[in-house]
Amino acid sequence: MEKSISVNQLTKRFGKFTAVDAISFEVDKGEIFGFLGANGAGKTTAIRMLTGLSKPTAGKAMVAGFDIQRQREKVKRKIGYMSQKFSLYEDLTVRENIVLYGGIYGLPNKVIREKSGLMLENLELKEVSKTLVKSLPLGWKQKLAFSVAIMHDPAIVFLDEPTGGVDPITRRQFWEMIYEAADTGVTVFVTTHYMDEAEYCDRVSIMVDGRIAAMDTPYQLKKDFQAKSMNDVFLQLVRPEKSTAL
Amino acid sequence: MNDSIAIKVDAVSKQYNDHTVALQEVDLEVRRGELFGLIGPDGAGKTTLIRILCSLILADSGRASVEDWDVVKDYRKIRSNIGYMPGRFSLYQDLSVEENLRFFATTFGTTIRANYDLIKDIYVQIEPFKKRKAGKLSGGMKQKLALSCALIHKPKVLLLDEPTTGVDAVSRKEFWEMLKQLRDKGITILVSTPYMDEASMCERVALIQEGRIMDVASPEEIIRKFDKELLAIRTNKMYQLIGDLRQMEQTHSAFPFGDFVHLATREKIDETSLRQYLRDKGHTSIQMKPIEPNIEDCFMDLMI
Lengths: 246, 304
Prior knowledge:
The complex is a heterodimer. Chain A is an alpha/beta fold. Chain A has a domain at 85-153. In chain A, 35% of the residues lie in helices and 27% in strands. Chain A is built from nine helices and ten strands. In chain A, the strands form two sheets. In chain A, strands 6-7-8-3-9-10 form a six-stranded mixed sheet. In chain A, strands 2-1-4-5 form a four-stranded antiparallel sheet. In chain A, helix 6 links the parallel strand 7 and strand 8. In chain A, 45% of the residues are buried. Mean pLDDT of chain A is 90; it is low at 242-246. Chain B contains ten helices and 14 strands. Chain B starts with a strand and ends with a helix. In chain B, the strands form three sheets. In chain B, strands 6-7-8-3-9-10 form a six-stranded mixed sheet, with helices on both faces. Chain B has a four-stranded antiparallel sheet with strand order 2-1-4-5, with helices on one face. In chain B, strands 12-13-11-14 form a four-stranded antiparallel sheet, covered by helices on one side. In chain B, 33% of the residues lie in helices and 28% in strands. In chain B, a hairpin with a 2-residue loop joins strand 9 (204-209) and strand 10. Chain B has two domains: 5-223, P-loop containing nucleotide triphosphate hydrolases (Rossmann fold); 226-303, VP9 protein domain (Alpha-Beta Plaits, 2-Layer Sandwich). By secondary structure, chain B is α/β, with parallel strands linked by helices. The interface between A and B is large, with 38 and 39 residues.
């Protein structure tokens, strides 16, 4: 299986504090990988390194075929990013957002025109293409944000708490979009502390105090920890002494 | 006057200036001493309802009361007798833990000592950091301090707006344990949350969506009322599975639920022929089991 991300002994220290402590893992092409951890476990620091925003203190990682120590700019061109909090410009229209991001990604005008037509069609947003993003329902915004995050055909898309707080049906429609993208070969890297989002990933890793404490399919983890949900697995790992289900 | 009702909402509607309809004819009763959950996604109207109950905003129509005090007429009474924790952290970031608590006590004309019993179990967990500025606390600790401040005047009713949003699973669990203890001390608690799984922590819940209350009952009752047959299914091709299940005539709904797809049908479905159907579509490693619905299944069923 082709590896989309491979991380070997990746470490980040801030002075005496080790935020990420020699973590190693691999993510396959087209896999939906959940990257979990409590607040302060080192998730954000690790992602900043994988997306080329921060330099590791030690260790090595290849992301989309590029070295994150020496080829950070190339890494950035091969990835997409979406966060629930900020991804779209609220005061621009739907179409303006698409065109703006297309430009930022360096796509030729012709491609941007074709892509925006296709995206508006697929998302059924044609009628609201001239509407300001801020007046769209949250679920529509999220679907648009995801499409924008993959419009430059990245090898990997990083999603930060993509569906927290949305209604359960919209959340599922969103996961179906993610499945569809993964089906076409895009690797999906999801970070979240909503444990119910973790259930949708092919495989998850759970960080505790800078290290990866567990990594497997949600199905296997639940089995191994004799847990009903990922929430329960998480509680057992983070607070072993208080491990009753929520 | 009804002795057993702590919060009463009667046909309350609210629309904002940008024409967003936040609440439509909402009726609700929360019993005295109850731990009651207001459960729904972002934008459902949870915050609007809580703010109306706190007397912070006015409803367009309808009436609401807390402990028989009308939210309009008796707003002063309400403000001095309820504890409110807004969704966004709203303590003074530049004051220390201890200073915040003292400030809230003084504002309500009381002292920390007078009501220490009520907050003790919560406050001891943050007491080691009492000299630290509130702005420098972790998410879980901020939440404990905010709850302590909301309790310092011994309120009869607590109104908590999404206290567990954005905190990790461990802090979330601890927070619910604290709420149960407070409920055992006789405080009525109305708590809103977008996490469906938290319904099970409440005695009764209201499921709210787009400004309407879809159902009010105990979590067990809501699950009992679910009138479809439910199968959890998993195969080697999960994305394709959703589409294949939706094509079947008997299907009411098919939604991904983590590592399984939940198939709801009106009539019980023959598992052997379903397996055959899936094999014909190219699925292997087929797993299938009848399951009880959870609150999320019920919530979605009410939405469709």
